[in-house]
Amino acid sequence: MAEKKVKLLATEGLFRGLSKQNLLFHQCVSELIDNAIAARRPEDKFRIDIIFIKEDSEEMVNMFIADNCKGMPLDILEKALQLGESATTEDRLNEHGFGLKNALATLSGENGPWKLWTRPSKNTNGFYYVEGPFKPEMVIKDNVNAPDNEFLPTDFSTLVNVKVDLKFVQTAQGRGAPASDLSSLREWLIEHLGVLYRGYLDLDEKKLEQQGTIVVSIKNDSKQVPPIHVPLANSTTEYFKIELAGVVYELTYTYGTLDTVKRDKSVSGNPARYYYQGNIPTQGIDIRLGKRTIATRQFEFIWKTEGGESRLSRHNNYNDFTGELTIPELPRSVLSTTNNKTDFNWKDSDWNSIFDKLNEIRPPKGIREKSEKELKKKWMEMLKATNPDENITDEYSVWPTGTRVDVYRETTDNKIIIYEIKVGSGQPIHLYQLKMYWDGLVVSDIQPREAFLFVEDFNSALEEMANQMNKLSPPKIVKNSKPEQSKAYNFKISKHSEKGL
Question: How does residue 309 score in pLDDT terms, banded at 50, 70 and 90?
Fold first, then answer.
């Protein structure tokens, strides 16, 4: 029998196919950021600049990504261009050896043109230079000058340049009509990067400083990416140990109620629009491995139905449920992901071990209502323990609608005190609920003495709002069939921690 050996080549067609894996714009950018952070200098904070320049054609955006990290010597650059070859073997951000190729082939529009400059030392004048599209044979030039562009940083080690179709940039966007202006699209990208890299952008617990910064610019209009944390209220933290590849690690699982006030200020004071929306698509938890958030909005792949026969379905009852699983830094071969880092490698049994453990901690249905009910119950128990002769109830109603006061308290000397108890940060509407209770009591000829709002946290603006409301004129009260002015409002705000809740 005749035999013929076939030599397999990484042809341009292979890279065109690589670009059709449904990667989104921000996922491609993240692959390039991963490479930069993996090459960070231990002695320096990394800085990554993403610069957008709108081309004359409205259809294309000229994107540059520059970093001040180690850069690549010739042998590392050669490896980085090889399909399936990791540029380095030390950092798990270089996990598969597909990231650079996948990102550039996709960003450029099915293996189109791109450019890359890199130098291994800041003291080196010239750069190594290579350009796409990817081919079976790539040419690396040395001692090349970097582009002279007024919008680029002056001190960079690696620079990637690719022209991206505006329609592909729009894939970073969530709901709403596709935006055509770069400033709007930049906000979506900043939100993605703030979630994915919060572990690097936040203050290190030991060193109390950031490991680096990421800046997104439109020409010379720059915005720094903030660390965006899971907006949690009344959270619970569980620690559990698990064996992964023969070594025991401690994992941290924090979960609780979505705090909409924190969410609406999480992106440099502006609302998050893609993540943590309190709806079916965004319910669930994030998973962070080391300092990199590798998955968001995880739900049905973790939890199963009570009997364990099938996956637990998403439902509106879980809209306020959110959290984060934090896994410590692990060796590259442990807890692997797919080649494009958009999903778990389900052949890795260690993932199933973790999810089996998480499945023992069920996501609570109606977590906001349940948490507020528990807080209310606890506060009533505390009041009754110290004031057993007082009338304390959660069944007192006002107005013809039968609206219940959270906690109604009548002291032994006939003073009326009311409470509104909420999960998460205080909001203006919470004060207005208290006012509704107060006014409802007054028109029923009952004069409250104090009204408390208990929340996890509040800002000075809400406190000032309460002070201004205290200056308003309350409704008149009827005494002996004669209307007369009731006593002044007396709204107060306290934190749960101050009351032992």
Answer: confident
Name the 3-class secondary structure at 234. strand
- Of 70, 72, 77, 50, nearest to 61 by C-alpha is 50
Q: Alpha-carbon distance 86 to 101, whole Å?
A: 11
The total of other beta-carbon atoms located within 10 Å of residue 278's CB is 17
Alpha-carbon distance values, 75 to 46, 88, 109, 491 (Å): 23, 11, 28, 69
Tens of pLDDT, residue by residue over 127-180, are 999 998 999 889 999 999 988 888 999 889 999 999 999 999 999 998 888 888
Paired tokens of 258: 């979505």
Can you tell me the distance from the alpha carbon of 437 to that of 34, in angstroms, rounded to the nearest whole number?
53
Asked whether the beta carbons of 271 and 240 are under 8 A apart, the reply is no
d(CA 331, CA 335): 9
Closest CA to 170 of 181, 178, 159: 178
Chain centroid to Cα 24, Å, comes to 17
- The whole-model pTM stands at 0.87
- Say if residues 145 and 127 touch (Cβ distance below 8 Å): yes
Residue 126 has pLDDT above 70, yes or no: yes
Of 467, 463, 454, nearest to 499 by C-alpha is 454
- The label of the residue with tokens 């209310």 reads 376
Taking each continuous run of H as one helix and of E as one strand, the counts in the chain are 13, 22
User: Between vectors from CA 237 to CA 236 and to CA 242, what angle results, nearest 5°?
Assistant: 145
Q: Please, what's the b/e burial string for 121-160 (b: 16 or more CB within 10 A of its CB; e: otherwise)?
A: eeeeeebbbbebbbeeeeeeeeeeebeeeebbbeebbbbb
Element at 374 (helix H, strand E): helix 367-386
- pLDDT at residue 14 greater than cutoff 70: no
Which carries the bigger pLDDT value, residue 484 or residue 490?
Answer: 490
- In this prediction, residues 219-223 reach a mean pLDDT of 94
The mean pLDDT of the chain is 90
pLDDT tens for residues 437-486? Answer: 999 999 999 999 999 999 999 999 999 999 999 999 999 887 767 788 89
Place of tokens 């965004």: 282
Q: Cα 393 vs. chain centroid, distance in angstroms?
A: 39
Measured CA to CA, the distance from residue 264 to residue 308 in angstroms comes to 36
pLDDT at residue 332, rounded to an integer: 79
